[in-house]
Amino acid sequence: MHSGRWMLAGLSLVLAACGGADDAMDDSAMDSAAAMTDTAMGGAGGASAMVQANAVDNSGVSGQVTLTASGEQTMVEMHLTGAPPNASLAAHIHSGTCENKGPAVAPLDTVRTDASGMGMNNATANIPFATANDGQHFVQFHLPNGQPAACGNIAARTM
């Protein structure tokens, strides 16, 4: 019963943060949504976070990533748009932030795009959710030539 109230309260806050006038969530609203989702899901068991991946160097590639705790691993659901058609984009979780990049710490499965440049894939990352969600990791996608295409900071988990 209490979890339903938390979910409803969280949804209200997310809608308020969006402001209603703009279809795209800003970074602070996205961070709030990720934190509320994590809290509403009850901590590390089944916790999840959403990450917005933004285009790097005008690549046109953007997407949304959902991270979900799964024991000592993290399930990663990836959705991309604006990528080259019929391409394979490498994906990784890196240490650091999009602004202060560190090395890749967990490779993810490649995202293959269709003729319209859209692609999705699910992967299992060999990194605990609590580690990935410590505010010092990000998800990055790379074009077939290896250049960064999109990047999204994973917000620090709050309890």
Second rung of CATH, namely the architecture of one domain: Sandwich
* CATH fold label of one domain: Immunoglobulin-like
The arrangement of helices and strands along the chain is HHEEEEEEHEE
Walk across the major sheet and give the strand order. 5-4-7-8-1-2-3-6
The overall pLDDT average reads 79
How many whole angstroms does the radius of gyration measure? 15 Å
Alpha-carbon distance between the termini? 19 Å
| Helical stretch tally | 3
Low-pLDDT stretches: 1-44
Let me know the number of strands: 8
CATH first level of one domain: Mainly Beta
Biggest sheet layout: 8 strands, antiparallel
Shape: globular
CATH superfamily of one domain: Superoxide dismutase, copper/zinc binding domain
Helix content: 10-25%
What share of the residues does DSSP label as strand, in percent?
Answer: 35-45%
Instruction: State the secondary-structure class.
Output: alpha+beta
